[in-house]
Write a structure and sequence with these properties.
heterodimer, A: alpha/beta, Rossmann fold, six-stranded mixed sheet, 38% helix, disordered C terminus, B: 319 residues, mainly alpha, MetI-like fold, two-stranded antiparallel sheet, 2 strands, 78% helix, extended
Chain lengths: 268, 319
């Protein structure tokens, strides 16, 4: 599949008095693994939602290749959301449906009305879903209700759902924030595998610095809606970190406190 | 101990702690006073409205009654009314022959002389309720999604469906029945439409309240994967509300059986017509016979649907 680069130009989103995302411009090359870090409320989540068009920008533009994403409507918009898969901190699965159907939700864009309403999927679609589940070691759970799975398993179901979308970009909004370190590592490893094997661009919001350093080719740091830092893990020095998290965030930039590293090295 | 008192006045930390506890005490007393005042005002308002209503509806009236010795005396309306109930009940009691089995069956036969006809009409009432419930479930279900604040695609659709549901449930079944009898003539069809329309309004409202309590996360997941509004509702919302919908619908069926027996009063089919005729002709034993058949049937339906509902709720609890 052809992978174009994702370009954000002066992207801005205002909620009432607060500017959640303030004139963000980024150029993301195909196949990059980009981590977005910053304190809670820095605008990381809004930024990802703007790219996927779950919310609309107040100003600025998102382009993917030659496509202006910000002007898409109706079917084209739904197809963009399919191309730009997203996973969430709280997994956002339909807990009362089985795992297989949850994965098949990734195939909904561009299907017929009646077959969607009847929850009828073709054999090819089911095959795709099972293959995606197999990559994430979840085939034995395929017919279980999603709500009965552990958090780590649910997040992997969400990744499988994203995979069957055949996406060009994978967005992940704090994918490991509600997981224990062991599951967090599995999820991050899954994202890394997808990035390496499928060559997908991955854009992930994180709040643990060491995870960002461990997995990301490139780290973007945000503060109060603006990009404060954009570079590699090595360039992210303590001084820069102090800048991003502010002086009140004394504990936050103490990497040992937020660390999942011990567990990461143990399992790796 | 000594060290604390020593540190006390000079330590800013301890001084601060004391004053914050004082502040808490003050705020706590304030909150207590406030809640006591709210409670007092609430009680006064409630009692005032209560007595106003009872006075308005004549609960305290005094009425002249004839006593056993033939003289007339004023009595409070409530016990005075209860003494009249005796007469009514006595009139409704049939004369049964308990001397022999054949005699007993003959007198029972006499009491339930119209059993076949009544059972037929009762079945008609139940079928009206059944059709009306299906009608109500289908339209109530479809309209409940645009009528939910969290799911409505836009404000206009939300308000239009809300008002429509309101109108269809505010107008009583009897009034709908009169309108439909005027339009389509007397008979069960008018009954189905009347009860169904009212049920649609009531169910649509209940369903939409269930919809408003769901988690929006699954819907966001479906939306982010490229699902349309219908996909979001079908995959994200419906699985969450199905148990509620089943429970409300069964409850509605029970209510509809009662409603469909009443609308026969105005000629919209079912047992109601017979009941009305018996009342008009002052055939009190017919009235009691129909009443007993009706009570037994309603009892069975309520019991069955309650069992079913609890089973469904129980199933939910386990998973």
């Amino acid at each position: 599949m052809e992978h174009a680069s994702l370009r954000l130009e002066n992207l801005t989103r205002v909620f009432g008095q607060t500017t959640a995302v303030d004139r963000v411009s980024l150029d993301i090359a195909p196949g990059q693994f980009v981590g977005v870090i910053g304190r809670s409320g820095a605008g990381k989540s809004t930024l990802l939602r703007l790219i996927n068009r779950l919310i609309d920008p107040t100003d600025g533009k998102v382009t993917f290749g030659d496509t202006d994403v910000t002007t898409l409507k109706g079917r084209a918009l739904r197809e963009w959301r399919r191309d730009c898969a997203m996973i969430f901190q709280q997994f956002n699965l339909v807990e009362r449906l089985d795992v297989l159907t949850n994965v098949l939700v990734g195939r909904l864009a561009g299907r017929g009305f009646l077959s969607s309403m009847a929850m009828q999927f073709s054999d090819e679609e089911r095959t795709m879903a099972i293959q995606a589940l197999d990559r994430l070691d979840l085939v034995p759970q395929a017919l279980q209700r999603a709500g009965t799975l552990s958090g780590g398993q649910q997040q992997r179901v969400a990744i499988a759902r994203a995979l069957v979308q055949n996406p060009r970009i994978m967005l992940a909004d704090e994918p490991i924030a509600s997981l224990d370190p062991g599951n967090a590592t599995r999820v991050m490893e899954a994202l890394r595998t997808i990035n390496k094997e499928d060559g997908l661009t991955v854009l992930v919001n994180l709040h643990t610095l060491d995870t960002a350093r461990e997995y990301c080719d490139r780290i973007v740091a945000m503060r109060a809606g603006r990009v404060m830092f954009d570079g590699t893990a090595v360039q992210l020095t303590d001084d820069v970190v102090r800048d991003i998290y502010g002086s009140e965030g004394l504990e936050e930039f103490n990497e040992a406190v937020t660390s999942t590293a011990a567990r990461v090295r143990e399992t790796a | 101990m000594a060290s604390i008192t020593e540190a006390g006045p000079s330590s800013p930390l301890l001084a601060q702690a004391e004053s914050s506890i004082d502040a808490f005490e003050r705020e706590f007393a304030q909150a207590r006073r406030r809640s006591r005042r709210v409670w007092l005002i609430g009680t006064v308002v409630f009692l005032a409205l209560f007595f106003l209503t009872t006075w308005f509806s004549g609960f305290f009236d005094v009425r002249m009654v004839t006593l056993e010795d033939g003289s007339r005396a004023p009595r409070w309306v409530i016990p005075a009314g209860f003494s009249l109930l005796d007469d009514f009940v006595v009139k409704m009691l049939p004369t049964l022959d308990f001397s022999s089995w054949p005699g007993f069956w003959a007198s029972m036969d006499d009491w339930f002389w119209g059993l076949e006809k009544w059972l037929g009409l009762l079945l008609e009432s139940i079928l009206i309720a059944y059709m009306a419930t299906i009608f109500g479930i289908f339209f109530g279900f479809c309209l409940s999604f645009p009528a939910s604040r969290n799911l409505a695609p836009n404000n206009f659709v939300y308000h239009v469906t809300r008002r429509f549901l309101e109108i269809s449930r505010t107008v009583p079944e009897l009034v709908w029945a009169l309108i439909f009898i005027f339009m389509f003539g007397p008979g069960p069809m008018a009954g189905v439409l009347a009860v169904g329309l009212h049920a649609q309004g009531a169910l649509g409202k209940l369903y939409s309240e269930a919809n408003e309590n769901i988690s929006m996360r699954p819907l966001e997941g479906v939306k982010a994967a490229g699902g349309s509004w219908f996909d979001q509702v079908r995959y994200g919302a419906v699985p969450q509300v199905i148990p509620n919908i089943i429970s409300y619908s069964l409850l509605r069926f029970e209510i509809n059986v009662r409603a469909s027996s009443i609308i026969g009063f105005v000629g919209a089919g079912g047992i109601g017509k017979e009941f009305y005729t018996a009342l008009q002709l002052q055939e009190y034993t017919d009235l009691s016979a129909i009443f007993i058949i009706f009570l037994v049937t309603i009892g069975i339906i309520d019991w069955g649907s309650e069992k079913l509902r609890h089973r469904i709720i129980g199933l939910e609890g386990r998973t």
